[in-house]
Protein backbone atom coordinates (compact mmCIF):
# COMPACT_ATOMS: atom_id res chain seq x y z
CA UNK A 1 0.00 0.00 0.00
CA UNK A 2 1.20 3.54 -0.73
CA UNK A 3 0.56 7.02 0.71
CA UNK A 4 -1.85 7.87 -2.17
CA UNK A 5 -4.20 5.11 -0.94
CA UNK A 6 -4.45 6.73 2.51
CA UNK A 7 -5.08 10.19 1.02
CA UNK A 8 -7.80 8.74 -1.22
CA UNK A 9 -9.76 7.61 1.83
CA UNK A 10 -8.97 10.33 4.39
CA UNK A 11 -8.86 13.33 2.05
CA UNK A 12 -6.26 15.97 1.32
CA UNK A 13 -7.23 18.68 3.79
CA UNK A 14 -4.18 19.93 5.73
CA UNK A 15 -4.53 22.10 8.84
CA UNK A 16 -2.01 24.92 8.55
CA UNK A 17 -0.80 28.03 10.32
CA UNK A 18 1.78 30.76 9.71
CA UNK A 19 5.02 31.58 11.62
CA UNK A 20 3.65 34.88 12.98
CA UNK A 21 0.54 33.37 14.65
CA UNK A 22 0.63 33.01 18.44
CA UNK A 23 1.12 29.65 20.11
CA UNK A 24 -2.22 30.11 21.89
CA UNK A 25 -3.90 30.36 18.46
CA UNK A 26 -2.28 27.02 17.58
CA UNK A 27 -3.54 25.48 20.84
CA UNK A 28 -7.08 26.64 19.98
CA UNK A 29 -6.82 25.19 16.46
CA UNK A 30 -5.40 21.83 17.60
CA UNK A 31 -8.11 21.57 20.24
CA UNK A 32 -10.97 22.54 17.89
CA UNK A 33 -9.84 20.11 15.18
CA UNK A 34 -8.84 17.32 17.60
CA UNK A 35 -5.44 16.94 15.91
CA UNK A 36 -1.82 16.94 17.07
CA UNK A 37 0.09 19.15 14.63
CA UNK A 38 -0.19 22.03 12.17
CA UNK A 39 1.94 22.51 9.08
CA UNK A 40 3.49 26.00 9.01
CA UNK A 41 3.29 27.85 5.69
CA UNK A 42 5.10 31.08 4.85
CA UNK A 43 3.91 32.81 1.68
CA UNK A 44 2.28 29.52 0.74
CA UNK A 45 5.50 27.48 1.05
CA UNK A 46 6.31 24.82 3.64
CA UNK A 47 8.26 26.55 6.43
CA UNK A 48 7.90 24.12 9.35
CA UNK A 49 5.69 21.98 11.52
CA UNK A 50 4.43 22.62 15.05
CA UNK A 51 3.05 19.80 17.20
CA UNK A 52 1.50 19.53 20.65
CA UNK A 53 4.85 18.14 21.79
CA UNK A 54 6.65 21.39 20.86
CA UNK A 55 4.12 23.37 22.91
CA UNK A 56 4.33 21.12 25.98
CA UNK A 57 8.14 21.20 25.80
CA UNK A 58 8.23 25.01 25.56
CA UNK A 59 5.80 25.46 28.47
CA UNK A 60 7.79 22.97 30.53
CA UNK A 61 11.03 24.87 29.87
CA UNK A 62 9.86 28.49 29.90
CA UNK A 63 6.37 28.58 31.42
CA UNK A 64 2.88 29.43 30.15
CA UNK A 65 4.01 32.93 29.09
CA UNK A 66 5.21 31.37 25.81
CA UNK A 67 1.56 31.10 24.69
CA UNK A 68 1.85 34.71 23.45
CA UNK A 69 5.05 33.96 21.50
CA UNK A 70 4.98 33.37 17.73
CA UNK A 71 4.86 29.89 16.18
CA UNK A 72 8.28 30.58 14.63
CA UNK A 73 9.86 30.43 18.13
CA UNK A 74 9.00 26.73 18.62
CA UNK A 75 8.33 25.16 15.19
CA UNK A 76 10.57 22.50 13.65
CA UNK A 77 12.02 23.96 10.45
CA UNK A 78 13.68 20.86 9.04
CA UNK A 79 10.52 19.01 7.98
CA UNK A 80 10.70 15.43 6.76
CA UNK A 81 8.13 14.93 4.00
CA UNK A 82 6.95 12.02 1.90
CA UNK A 83 5.50 11.55 -1.57
CA UNK A 84 2.23 9.95 -2.68
CA UNK A 85 4.17 7.05 -4.20
CA UNK A 86 6.02 6.21 -0.95
CA UNK A 87 5.08 2.93 0.70
CA UNK A 88 3.24 2.90 4.04
CA UNK A 89 5.95 0.64 5.46
CA UNK A 90 8.66 3.13 4.44
CA UNK A 91 6.78 6.05 6.02
CA UNK A 92 6.20 4.04 9.21
CA UNK A 93 9.90 3.19 9.44
CA UNK A 94 10.92 6.85 9.04
CA UNK A 95 8.37 8.05 11.61
CA UNK A 96 9.52 5.42 14.12
CA UNK A 97 13.24 6.09 13.62
CA UNK A 98 12.88 9.89 13.80
CA UNK A 99 10.27 9.74 16.62
CA UNK A 100 7.56 11.93 15.12
CA UNK A 101 3.93 11.18 14.30
CA UNK A 102 3.17 13.45 11.35
CA UNK A 103 4.46 13.61 7.79
CA UNK A 104 3.34 16.20 5.23
CA UNK A 105 2.91 14.84 1.69
CA UNK A 106 4.63 17.05 -0.91
CA UNK A 107 4.52 16.75 -4.71
CA UNK A 108 6.63 19.08 -6.86
CA UNK A 109 6.94 21.52 -3.96
CA UNK A 110 3.18 21.59 -3.28
CA UNK A 111 1.61 20.41 -0.02
CA UNK A 112 -0.98 17.80 -1.07
CA UNK A 113 -1.84 16.09 2.23
CA UNK A 114 -0.61 14.90 5.61
CA UNK A 115 -0.21 11.43 7.08
CA UNK A 116 -0.29 10.73 10.82
CA UNK A 117 0.95 7.66 12.65
CA UNK A 118 -2.74 6.85 13.31
CA UNK A 119 -3.42 6.79 9.54
CA UNK A 120 -0.39 4.55 8.99
CA UNK A 121 -1.32 2.07 11.73
CA UNK A 122 -4.95 1.93 10.47
CA UNK A 123 -3.76 1.23 6.90
CA UNK A 124 -1.36 -1.50 8.09
CA UNK A 125 -4.09 -3.22 10.13
CA UNK A 126 -6.41 -3.19 7.09
CA UNK A 127 -3.62 -4.58 4.92
CA UNK A 128 -2.80 -7.40 7.38
CA UNK A 129 -6.52 -8.26 7.80
CA UNK A 130 -6.93 -8.39 4.01
CA UNK A 131 -3.92 -10.74 3.71
CA UNK A 132 -5.33 -12.97 6.49
CA UNK A 133 -8.72 -13.13 4.69
CA UNK A 134 -7.00 -14.14 1.45
CA UNK A 135 -5.00 -16.85 3.24
CA UNK A 136 -8.17 -18.19 4.92
CA UNK A 137 -9.96 -18.32 1.55
CA UNK A 138 -6.93 -20.03 -0.04
CA UNK A 139 -6.73 -22.66 2.71
CA UNK A 140 -10.51 -23.28 2.62
CA UNK A 141 -10.56 -23.76 -1.15
CA UNK A 142 -7.20 -25.56 -1.68
P1 LIG B 1 4.94 14.65 16.79
O1 LIG B 1 5.33 13.29 17.26
O2 LIG B 1 4.53 14.65 15.35
O3 LIG B 1 3.97 15.34 17.70
O4 LIG B 1 6.27 15.57 16.78
C1 LIG B 1 7.37 15.36 17.64
C2 LIG B 1 8.45 16.37 17.24
O5 LIG B 1 8.86 16.17 15.88
C3 LIG B 1 8.04 17.84 17.31
O6 LIG B 1 9.19 18.60 17.65
C4 LIG B 1 7.60 18.18 15.89
O7 LIG B 1 7.75 19.54 15.56
C5 LIG B 1 8.56 17.32 15.09
N1 LIG B 1 7.99 16.81 13.84
C6 LIG B 1 6.74 16.33 13.66
N2 LIG B 1 6.57 15.91 12.40
C7 LIG B 1 7.74 16.14 11.77
C8 LIG B 1 8.21 15.95 10.43
N3 LIG B 1 7.46 15.40 9.48
N4 LIG B 1 9.49 16.34 10.15
C9 LIG B 1 10.29 16.86 11.10
N5 LIG B 1 9.91 17.06 12.36
C10 LIG B 1 8.65 16.71 12.70
State the end-to-end CA separation.
Answer: 27 Å
One letter per element, helices H and strands E, the order comes to HEHEEHHEEH
Under the CATH scheme, which architecture would be assigned?
Answer: Roll
User: Largest sheet at a glance?
Assistant: 3 strands, mixed
Helix content: 40-55%
Task: State the CATH topology.
Answer: CBS-domain
Count of distinct strands: 5
How many domains, as an integer? 1
Strand content: 15-25%
Walk me through this protein's architecture.
The protein is α+β, with helices and mostly antiparallel strands and 142 residues long. The protein has a single domain, classed as CBS-domain, CATH 3.10.580. It is 46% helix and 20% strand. The chain is built from 5 helices and 5 strands. It has helices at 3-10, 23-33, 52-62, 88-98, 117-141; strands at 16-17, 37-42, 45-51, 102-107, 110-116. Strand 4 and strand 5 form a beta hairpin. It is elongated and about 65 Å long. Bound molecules: adenosine monophosphate. Adenosine monophosphate is lined by residues 36-37, 49-54, 76, 79-80, 100-103. Adenosine monophosphate (AMP) binds next to strand 3, helix 3 and strand 4.
Amino acid sequence: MIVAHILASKGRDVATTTPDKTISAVVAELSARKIGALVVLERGRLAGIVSERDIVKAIGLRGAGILDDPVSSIMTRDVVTCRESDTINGVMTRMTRRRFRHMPVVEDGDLVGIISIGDVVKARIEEVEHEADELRTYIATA
